[in-house]
Amino acid sequence: MEKNKVIDQVNKPSIDRRKFIVTTASAIAATTLATSPLNLFFTRTGQIKAVAFDAFAIFDPWPVFALVERMFSENGKKLNNVWRTKQFEYSWLRTAGNKYKNFWEVTEDALIYAAMETDVALSNQNKKELMEQYLKLNTWADVLPALEALKQNGIRLSFLSNMTSEMLNSSIHYSKTENYFECVISTDNAKTYKPSPIAYQLGIDTLKLKKEEILFVAFAGWDASGAKWFGYPTFWLNRLSTPTEELNAKPDGISKKMNDLVNFIKH
User: Quick one: pLDDT at residue 266?
Assistant: First the structure.
């Protein structure tokens, strides 16, 4: 980033997204929430002054999986499923075991494991290209108009993500969204991962706002639940239309669309 320097902080693949998420959920016991296109539960108090986004609420990860399928057409879908599952499984296991590695490192470890499990011959060049795709993510189609509307309404925008600052900054630069985000907050700063309360606390510490003044926008259901456990007003951008997690923590708003997020904040 240049002027707004961050703080420390295609085609879609042919994979069956619902099957992919179900596979992931069975392995890590949490992925994503909600049943209807838009459900609003008005339980928040106070005025929303800032929005903290999970990375995948903004950045579309499917080009990563598309590249896997192009490289390994026979076993690409299976490799994608295992890679995604292990990516989050490793991050949570390392947190629980106090053996932290950052998200870039666990993503690479998960890819190596996934290749072995699926009998894919992963060359160093394959690995390099796949990992580098995580540095070149573009936004979902509905993101930029929504970010512009939020900015015009004086809402401060940030990330609060398990990705490293380097990963986030690279995709922000690639997607040309530098001017929208006041700061990038990576849980790497605290050497932990969401849904740890320590990770969510970074939003308050960085933005210098009260908890109820920060709306957290999740991509995954487990993340929406974690943010609600922590006490953030929470909006779940349920782009995959997956079921609500049974974690006794309903988000305040649920929708597949960014413009519904904008309307939620204006309400």
Answer: 84
